[in-house]
Amino acid sequence: MEEVCARFVSQKISKARWRPLPAAALQPPDLFATGSWDNEDNRVSVWSVGDVGSAGLNGEYQGEPQLLCDIRHNGDVMDMQFLDQERIVVASSTGSVTIFRHHQNNQTLSASHRWENAHYHADQYTACGGAACTGVICNNPEIVTVGEDGRINLFRADQKDAVRTIDNADSSTLHAVTFLRTTEILTVNSIGQLKIWDFRQQRNEPAQIFSLTGDRVPLHCVDRHPSQQHIVATGGQDGMLSIWDIRQGTMPVSLLNAHEAEMWEVHFHPSNPDHLFTCSEDGSLWHWDTSTDVSEKPSFLHQGGRSTAYISHSTINQSVVSAWLSNDPTKDRMEITNLIPNQTLSVNTLDVLGPCLVYGTDAEAIYVNRQLFA
Amino acid sequence: HLTAVTPGPVSITWGEEANPHLTTTSFQALSSAWDPAYLVLTQPPTMLTAGSIHRYTEEGLTPIALFQVSKNYRSVIRACMEDMHQAAISTRDSALQSQYSIQVICTGPLLLRLLDWVQLHICDVDNMVREVLSSENPSKHKLFWNVVDIFVLQGRMDEARHLLSKEAIANPTSMNMYKILDDLMKKMPVPSLGNTQTLTEMELKWQHWHEECQRYLQDGTFASNSHMESICKILLGDENAILEKKELMTTWYHFLVTRLLYSHPTVKPMELRFYAQSSMDMFLGEESSPEPLDTILMAAFEFELHQVIKECSVALSNWWFVAHLTDLLDHCKLLQSHNLYFGSNMREFLLLEYASGLFSHPSLWQLGVDYFDHCPEYGRVYLELHIERIPLNTEQKALKVLRICEQRQMHEQVRSICKIMAMKALRNNRLGSALSWSIRAKDAAFATLISDRFLKDYCERGCFSDLDLIDNLGPSMLLSDRLTFLGKYREFHRLYGEKRFSEAARLLLMLMTAHIAPCSFWMTLLTDALPLLEQKEVIFSAEQTYELMRCLEDLTAGKLNRQKFQDDDVETMKVEMLRLALARNLARVIVKEGTLEGS
């Protein structure tokens, strides 16, 4: 029996996100949203993954995603995030940011609020050309967006205008944003810089700038360790995974050669942060596992190849506990597994919550694995 | 057991039909990227790529296995069609043709295959069948006999007998008739897959059975029940009786198959054409003339492959079917491909046409790339031309296109796309983005252009924009001289700001003497030297001062030739001030250097 369920959806999937679980929930997530790109008619869709209990006679339909509802979206879905249990914030390639509300009672989606020109180019030839909004992150009720215009916007879900806008925050494209603390965000851009912005400061300058050593390869994604907030992971255009310690230095702590093409998303597992997941244009999805106790390591059901490798880290400072930053050789075993047995087109997105993984590809398919640590 | 899911609300489980040799890969390749909407738009499923078929033949799949693959494929199509019964008729056409094409390749008893085909294809009647079967009392349903007739016409004897048994139970009076009919249907000889009997044996049996049916009919056994009588006539192959059921058959090729089933069950492929033509004439009668689809089928029945391809190319609205059919035939070496006068063979020509069509679709261009990869002669050229013309509305899409180009070493296209993106960025005043694109393309000329922009901004505003970029250029600074200058110049400013004057001075001088600075900027640099010259402490050494003076003279000599009149006063004043400052500095430094330490 396969643990990964595939669903062909006839649209290229650019983003997939699990609906967050209520704080004390014990059950795995059962609902996720996806966004498509590159169609004339793009859609934001909500899917449910059936309970194990509702399997068919021979378990054929177990876990297969069912479409609950969808809604037309103007422009490519560039990024997506759940604001709360019912609202989804979607960033568009037209430069607008929309909040969609998922009505549970009749299973419909509706647009509840839109910031039409969140991102734009002030062009001398046209009045206002739209610029793609490339990243969005939420911390209810605050929403931060970044775009190709190098602008950072801070919105509040209930307010019509932006609370704060930093124009020309960056001279290059901002590719992704995430929260560092409640008032600080991290952004990555296309000249290989990781910047910290503090909203408490009035000046429109980053609080701190980190750069890659060597070539300024564009960075495409960023994620912060769930519990140890000084550890940040970024993925670059050359497929390299960089681990940063933002308390010290301006250069990454480790550089790990990973994919062969752009790394689109990187995620620490929210409850098991020793596990990291990355997906890439080369069609692979890697699971990085630094949990140190090898003997008790859960065995994954994969069709892909397993490789256990000693990774030599080029560390600068080694006073930390986390496996991500340590360079102790005996503990330095990182197991890296490719979760996709036969790669075709790019894996654009992934999301992981509890024991469940969802990822979407340019091959117009969504995959769900509900037994990640089985 | 392969469980796979197709898009739309239909799920298919492959039961016994599955070929155990098919891997999940190949199956997914078949059925992925399937959009029912595409079917509506008569743009059929797209993932049946040339590549995947190529893979099959490489793995040594025989035509039979290929047939299985197509059968699965057809089942999926059928499921989609059932689901979208209201969709345009053209969807049925494309499905039909795909089914038929594989027929040509297959082996095994022809009749069985034809029956199979008809059963899969004619799905109009499924609703009726479902309705009757699911009703409480099927034998009382008004369409009951229609359904029985359909089963008989399609050779589905067991199902027909099953239904008839219900009728027998409901009408005990006709039990006798029913028993005889049932017996006849059960005994009907059909060519078996196993080929346990020879052809002559089969024919003998069939003849014997046929005569038995004939006897029962002539005895008037079924005289009291017209339905059963007509069924018996059908079993005998009575063409008129079969033609009476025209609406149930809907198409002339169904009629053909039924006719063959009941009059010539051992038909061979080569004989098909004779029956096909007469069937079509009989069915269509006087009123209608053959449609394009019919012409295609006729050509197919005659095994005129080239004719089929030609007719399809003319009749169909896109190249999907023809391209894939030709590719399949080519791989099975059934197609004598002669070189067309413009160089490539037919298979490649059709694939190129199809792939070009894909590129005009907003999202299918990624698939087109795969197709071009499989055209050995012209594929690359076509790809090079098409890939530059994909509209790039976001940077992420441009990155994906670039990755495709880089994987195929299409350096020209990489440069051209990066240049387009960089120009767009430049026009939107996103200098950092523009620089990042030029770095990707290793485009020194563009980097120079961007640096000039920065320097122009500096001259106009007196300060640098985008310091975060210039301060962090790193090794990319070396991409172009101008960019290096920009980085170093910014460093000069920084050193000055940190009050490291002697280092700043040295850098400034180096910028001029090593000719890193463009001539147009020398005036600015010299003006920047002024505050250093005016410092209380002597910064420039004598050597350095001489160098500076030389630079100034070079500059003014050049300017005199060009005779600028506009900023004359300002320029002259600047030059005067510089000369004065330099002279003063020289004086001080000579004294300082001439002074012995400690004396």
TrEMBL record, chain A:
Residue ranges of WD repeats: 212-254, 256-292
Pfam families in the record: WD40
PROSITE patterns: WD_REPEATS_1, WD_REPEATS_2
A GO CC annotation given for this chain: nuclear pore outer ring
Protein origin, superkingdom: Eukaryota
Protein keywords: Nucleus, Repeat, WD repeat
Family annotation (InterPro entries): WD40/YVTN_repeat-like_dom_sf, WD40_repeat_CS, WD40_repeat_dom_sf, WD40_rpt
Record's subcellular location: Nucleus
Protein name as annotated: Nucleoporin 43
Gene that produces this protein: NUP43
Automatic annotation (TrEMBL), chain B:
Keyword set, alphabetical order: Membrane, mRNA transport, Nuclear pore complex, Nucleus, Protein transport, Translocation, Transport
Major subcellular location class: nucleus
GO biological process entries: mRNA export from nucleus; positive regulation of DNA-templated transcription; protein import into nucleus
Record flagged with keyword Membrane: yes
Keyword Ligase tagged: no
GO cellular component terms listed in the entry, alphabetical order: nuclear membrane; nuclear pore outer ring
Pfam hit, one: Nucleopor_Nup85
Subcellular location: Nucleus, Nuclear pore complex
Function: Functions as a component of the nuclear pore complex (NPC).
Protein name (record): Nuclear pore complex protein Nup85
Upper taxonomic lineage: Eukaryota, Metazoa, Chordata, Craniata, Vertebrata
